[in-house]
Amino acid sequence: YGLYPNHNTDIGSLLWCASTLARLAAPLCYHFLLLARVEHTAFQDMMGQMNVVPVLGSSFNEAFPVLVAFLCVCNLLNVYSRLVHLVGLDVLEAEWSGPALAAEEAQDLLAEGRRLLERERRRR
Asked: Which of 1, 7, 55, 60 could anchor a disulfide with 13, C-beta 3.0 to 4.6 Å?
C-alpha cells in the first residue's frame, strides 16, 4: 500500500490509508495533548482519562509518546540508513526509486510505458 503522486493511487490503497489514519487520529491527539500538558479540553472530556496499564507502570503514558516522537525524528533525518551504512550492512537496505530517479532512467521508463500502451492499443 502506498500513496502516489499525480492521482496514481489505487482505491484499495486510499481506503487502507484512510482507515489507518482514522484509527490513529484519536491516540495521536491524546498523546499530543499529554505531551503539551494541556488540560481540560473538550477532547479530554469526551475521551476521559486513559487507564494506566499496571504491568507497564504509570510513567508509560508519558515516556511512550516521547519515544514515538524520537523515532519520527530519526526517520525524518534518515538515521536508519546512516546507521546501516555505518555498521556495514548495506546489503540489507532496500533500494528506493522514488522521486529522485535520474532523468535518463525516468525517460527510459516513460518510453517503455508508451511502447506498452501502443502494443495494447494495436491488439484491440
From this structure: 1
Query: Residue written as cell 530517479?
Result: 101
The length of the chain in residues reads 124
1-10 own/partner pairs: CB under 8 Å, 24+ apart: 5/99
Whether pTM > 0.85 for this model: the answer is: no
Joined grid coordinates for residue 25: 487520529
Give the distance between the most distant pair of CA atoms in the chain. Answer: 68
Q: Is residue 110 classed as helix, strand or coil in its secondary structure?
A: helix
Task: Render pLDDT for 66-87 as a digit per residue (tens, 0 to 9).
Answer: 888 899 899 899 888 888 888 8
Of 45, 49, 51, 43, nearest in space to 26 by CA: 43
Give CA–CA dist 45/32, Å, rounded.
15
The amino acid present at 116, given as its one-letter code, is L
